[in-house]
Amino acid sequence: xxxxxxxxxxxxxxxxxxxxxxxxxxxxxxxxxxxxxxxxxxxxxxxxxxxxxxxxxxxxxxxxxxxxxxxxxxxxxxxxxxxxxxxxxxxxxxxxxxxxxxxxxxxxxxxxxxxxxxxxxxxxxxxxxxxxxxxxxxxxxxxxxxxxxxxxxxxxxxxxxxxxxxxxxxxxxxxxxxxxxxxxxxxxxxxxxxxxxxxxxxxxxxxxxxxxxxxxxxxxxxxxxxxxxxxxxxxxxxxxxxxxxxxxxxxxxxxxxxxxxxxxxxxxxxxxxxxxxxxxxxxxxxxxxxxxxxxxxxxxxxxxxxxxxxxxxxxxxxxxxxxxxxxxxxxxxxxxxxxxxxxxxxxxxxxxxxxxxxxxxxxxxxxxxxxxxxxxxxxxxxxxxxxxxxxxxxxxxxxxxxxxxxxxxxxxxxxxxxxxxxxxxxxxxxxxxxxxxxxxxxxxxxxxxxxxxxxxxxxxxxxxxxxxxxxxxxxxxxxxxxxxxxxxxxxxxxxxxxxxxxxxxxxxxxxxxxxxxxxxxxxxxxxxxxxxxxxxxxxxxxxxxxxxxxxxxxxxxxxxxxxxxxxxxxxxxxxxxxxxxxxxxxxxxxxxxxxxxxxxxxxxxxxxxxxxxxxxxxxxxxxxxxxxxxxxxxxxxxxxxxxxxxxxxxxxxxxxxxxxxxxxxxxxxxxxxxxxxxxxxxxxxxxxxxxxxxxxxxxxxxxxxxxxxxxxxxxxxx
Length: 718
Ligand code: BDP
Hints:
The chain is α/β, with parallel strands linked by helices. It has three domains: 8-164, Chitobiase/beta-hexosaminidase domain 2-like (Chitobiase, domain 2, 2-Layer Sandwich); 170-484, TIM Barrel; 524-565 and 611-707, Alpha-d-glucuronidase, C-terminal Domain. The protein is built from 21 helices and 15 strands. It has helices spanning 8-19, 39-48, 59-75, 100-103, 137-152, 204-215, 235-248, 263-266, 278-294, 320-331, 352-360, 421-428, 467-478, 484-495, 500-521, 552-556, 589-596, 606-609, 624-649, 655-687, 702-707, and strands at residues 4-5, 52-55, 82-84, 92-96, 117-124, 127-134, 162-164, 170-174, 220-222, 254-259, 300-303, 337-341, 371-376, 399-405, 447-451. It has an eight-stranded parallel β-barrel with strand order 8-9-10-11-12-13-14-15. Helix 13 crosses helix 14 and helix 19 (624-649) runs antiparallel to helix 20. 53% of the residues are buried. The chain binds beta-D-glucopyranuronic acid. Residues 184-185, 226-227, 304, 343, 381-382, 409 line the site of beta-D-glucopyranuronic acid.
């Protein structure tokens, strides 16, 4: 029997750091705050946790018990030392299913897999005990976080009856971090990874990052930008990567890297990166061996190829499948995976909404088993709203990942309150009708990748409410059937308070927030109306960029005759022509039919699929022009009512975080007004129609908005 009792001193130290955080309430504790529960409620929890025993002794079980100790010491305001033993009972027992103690309970554990867990209250040796049981230590870790979450939400833990396993085996953050610590599309400070100090330096922030990920079930992290610097594969960087992998391992997080397809040339000194070249194949094999010697559980690579100027197999007249398989075969002996991105965006004049489908659909079945094709949620590029990507459900012989963007590149960046749960459930729950209707996107994928919004800012994500997007991404990748509202409710009670007088307005505000952005930026299915390059603020008038499909005017197609992008009329496939092909037909026939008919297309996608006259009568009986103006105004009104909701929350939360959010909302209100006025000024200059009654004119003429430059972009340093 191995027995050790954690020293009281450590528990006291933990208690101190939980109850009096060095930073105050600045958001750095995320949803893992663990403030003391009201005195009256502590007793029952204290009884259930009177003697905590962990019947597992690996590093992941240790991470679980340390978290329990930290959480319970904080919430129950008393140190609760934990015993780590093999085969002892207690009031709360963490144990692997194979242990004799648990074996005697005859619990069904086969379906838990390697990451699932169950939590039950039962009798062991005649005593009532709550057990957290899993087949592997990773499951114990996830079960522990579920147990802690239950206490944070004041559930009766001696009646807990949970059995969970993740719907998707791979739940991965993608950091777009550069090696100089800048972050592509990052609005939360510098990169977390201090490459200059690694493999040394202070690991505490890395550990907190790993704890936060584990708490929501994220089990992988891609450390660097998809526009990858080939230096990442040099030995000196791999040693730094290995140091991070060592820190993350106890939290069941595997490390992945983005790699540049031409690395054999830049890093390896070869003359080519041609997938058919034996020396190139050998180079990737040797590189994989070197990596796995340093990092035995290395996850694999992400590759962005033949997109936005990145090299790829098409440079050698080969396909995406040839390129992906080249790298996958080097990783296969070690159990690694290649995430091959389907975000292909070239300089051609083709409709961007069709390019990935055209290039990837014919390759279905040609990718090796350890390749996953990573597809953005929508067919263009992380817009405030897009219909789901037509590749979902249409590559039945290929593993597919859904890529979501947590960082709000096109959604106001670090301005305001924008909860993305509703956006992701909209796509996860969308019916692909493939092979038959009733097949939501969530059931067609085997992984979720989230472009991280995390940086070195004290609150991690640039604003406190952006933490909810990190949280929601993990929870949805674990269980895509969860509703956005349930997740918002969970996050709110963990992050703010569980006082209903505050949770109700917060949840309401969160649930309206994404729709508000859609309305004030790109209502009725418009897309890509943001300023060039930095994608912040309105610029619908831009029409002179080198490539036609870089221009906002290309996407709105606003002209004297009407507005909207016709994706339903069959066009030419000649890439030199600006007439787009019929990309609505890329969807399965029932979906294509629904989107293609003006009678059935959802209002929210009207201008995505159809070009209609300004005076076109919508189902409401109002013209599209009137509805467009109405939506801009409603978006702005929503932000004003979010501000009111937030004012109601004031008495129930700490003043420091409340004030931070209040200033975020003040900024968002200004931004919404800017978007509303600039867009209406521009579209009115084209429609030449009067504003509908009771809608005020923009504050300034169009030329004012065209000349406006934000004084400082989000994410730029002060
Ligand atoms: C676009 C971003 C660009 C990324 C690209 C990608 O503007 O910075 O490199 O996506 O996903 O949204 O590769």
